[in-house]
Write a structure and sequence with these properties.
This protein is α+β, with helices and mostly antiparallel strands. 16% of the residues lie in helices and 30% in strands. Strands 1-3-2 form a three-stranded antiparallel β-sheet. Strand 2 (46-55) and strand 3 (64-72) form a beta hairpin.
Length: 74
């Protein structure tokens, strides 16, 4: 299971390349039975296996989003 910084959200101290991460999942899914990761959205070659509405705010403005659990379709 991987919990990368979510694409197109508030940045962390270090840069994170989501496209590079997705490619890493594709490449390593050939070796592992399954690699799961959390994200709000992912490229079309990944499938959603679970989703849930969550509070997605660092402040008290009650922002709600759908967090999804993905795996590579390949």
């Amino acid at each position: 299971y991987c919990d990368p910084p979510y694409n197109n959200t508030i940045k962390y101290n270090n840069d994170f390349d989501s496209d590079e991460f997705y490619q890493w999942v594709r490449d390593n899914s050939k070796k592992a039975k399954v690699i799961l990761f959390s994200e709000y959205s992912a490229p079309d070659d990944f499938e959603i296996i679970f989703e849930k509405e969550v509070s997605a705010s660092l402040h008290n403005n009650d922002s709600r989003k759908i967090e999804k659990l993905y795996k590579f379709k390949g």
